[in-house]
Amino acid sequence: MRPFLFAFLLLPGLQKILLATESDRPNILVILADDLGYGDLACRGAQDMRTPNLDGLFAQGMEFTNFYANCPVCSPTRAALLSGRYQEMVGVPGVIRTNSENNWGYLAPQATLLPKIAQDSGYHTAIVGKWHLGLKSPNTPMERGFDHLRGFLGDMMDDYYNHRRHGNNYMYHDRNEIDPEGHATDLFSQWSIDYLNSRKGKEEPFLLYLAYNAPHTPIQPPEYWEQKVLQRESVIDPQRAKLVALIEHMDDGIGKVLSALKQNGQSENTIVVFTSDNGGQLSVGANNGRLRDGKQSVYQGGLKVPTTVVWAGKIAAGTRTTFTAMSMDILPTMFQAAGIAVKHPMDGRSFLPVLIGRKQEPLRTQMFFCRREGGLRYGGKTIEAVISFPWKLLHNSPWEPLELYNLQTDPQEKNNLADTNRGMVNKLNAAMRLQLQKGGAVPWQRKID
């Protein structure tokens, strides 16, 4: 079979591993949790949590302790993950919502999403779960590179059982609106299993993007799972118990998906990635470890997320790395492993050498984070951060001054050095302004009549 060529710079010694042939290209399974805190798995230190399936997955591959979501909220990170670009470069600096007056992103119709490239390279592509990048044409999954959809187009569900948002039903099977019964987590897990079963024995490899809406609000676990936690954890806060139950319920579903992968004989040739779209929401009891703050903020607790990558026979089990990567680097890495050509501009970079135990230079000297939002807290303006390790400059509120932290000596961001190191503030602020200028050239609003 002819190897698939690709437009990545190969490092010495990688060609043999990376030039996958048509017959042995790996399947790709990306599992995305919604608002999962940096410390909200048992294997990440949560003592009130039982997550055996994700703990097992983390033990089977390489855990990243310095993995960053592209944004501290949903839509932008998903746009970055699926495009391999900074979210503002594809028109999604903020959350895409039902109502135009509170909508802060519009996926650029001309932007090429990476599932489309996989599709054109012979992969069968599927999304199960939460899309959150558009509610109508041209920004629906089937129009942006997916062969199969079973999931929810909107942002959050107002109820995990009736699957509505503002009274709208955004649940779809391919191009058809559906109204299934059951808890959304159970539906997404079962639909993923159904998809894996449908691909059993097929020569065509698959890319499955399984995007749960758990543990996003409303914190609504099935009663059985909540009671299970309350009976086991005698001193747990009731609010925290609900969140723990919602995460444990998701973990159970992921376990069933991974079991189907194994039973179908697909696990030996599937790269599995697990990560979250942003940090945990503190107001509902999330645990972000020792990191400062959580979802919505550009402090570390809003950006750092639990992440692991598993590839049997290629990635050593039980390994851990401090190598720094971002959401937008995931699919470029998977594509390099699969030999999928990517010829359009990308901000994402492959970290495959790290995965297979090779030395690798940092992916970038600066990492940028940007979010646009409305309401009195943000007023339609952006918050942003830039990390040029060990330095981090951030603007967590449009109404507050810039803050500067040394992450090496102050990982909890307690000691603001902005007043004592104006040279570094000026340097990083100049870089951040340039990034904002680049993003500002891309429209992020639908045309409003």
Question: Summed up, what is this model?
Answer:
With 449 residues, the chain is an alpha/beta fold. The protein has twelve helices and 16 strands.
Can you walk me through this structure?
- This protein folds into 2 domains: 15-355, Alkaline Phosphatase, subunit A; 367-440, 2-Layer Sandwich (Arylsulfatase, C-terminal domain).
- It has 12 helices and 16 strands.
- Helix content is 27%, strand content 18%.
- The protein is globular and about 60 Å long.
- By secondary structure, it is an alpha/beta fold.
Short key terms for the protein model shown above:
449 residues; alpha/beta; Alkaline Phosphatase, subunit A; Arylsulfatase, C-terminal domain; 10-stranded mixed β-sheet; 4-stranded antiparallel β-sheet; globular
Strand and helix order:
HEHEHHEEEEEEHEHHEHEEHHEHEEEH
The low-confidence runs, each spanning 5 or more residues with pLDDT under 50, are: 1-13
CATH class of the largest domain: Alpha Beta
Q: Helix- and strand-based class?
A: alpha/beta
Largest sheet: 10 strands, mixed
Overall number of domains: 2
Distance between the termini: 53 Å
Determine the CATH superfamily of the largest domain.
Alkaline Phosphatase, subunit A
**Share of residues in strands:** 15-25%
Strand order, sheet with most strands: 8-7-4-3-9-1-10-11-2-12
CATH topology of the largest domain: Alkaline Phosphatase, subunit A
How does CATH name the architecture of the largest domain?
Answer: 3-Layer(aba) Sandwich
Cα radius of gyration in angstroms = 21 Å
> How many H/I helices?
12
The averaged pLDDT comes out at: 94
Q: How would the global form be characterised?
A: globular
Would you report the number of β strands? Answer: 16
